[in-house]
């Protein structure tokens, strides 16, 4: 069996194909002789620390309260003046 198989053969021999992929082979699955998918070994992505961006500093102003006009804009009251309540 080569590195290209048809859909029927892939369904029938899936366990065998997976074993080949685990050994480093790459399998192309074709429909009507036209390649439609590639079966390759899974490579887990590198572990990442959530929220960690080297060199990114958060300005202290980020933690200050927002002005009323900006709060109103976030709440969907565009054009509201400070102190004006939402409809």
From TrEMBL:
SUPFAM superfamilies in alphabetical order: YefM-like
Family that this chain belongs to: Belongs to the phD/YefM antitoxin family.
Protein name as it appears in the record: Antitoxin
Native source species: Microcella pacifica
Task of the protein: Antitoxin component of a type II toxin-antitoxin (TA) system.
């Amino acid at each position: 069996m080569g590195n290209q198989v048809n859909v029927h053969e892939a369904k029938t021999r899936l366990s065998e194909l997976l074993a080949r992929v685990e050994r480093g082979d790459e399998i192309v699955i074709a429909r009507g002789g036209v390649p439609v998918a590639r079966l390759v070994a899974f490579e887990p992505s590198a572990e990442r620390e959530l929220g960690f961006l080297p060199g990114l500093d958060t300005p202290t102003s980020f933690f200050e309260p927002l002005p009323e006009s900006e709060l109103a804009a976030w709440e969907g009251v565009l054009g509201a003046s400070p102190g004006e309540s939402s409809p």
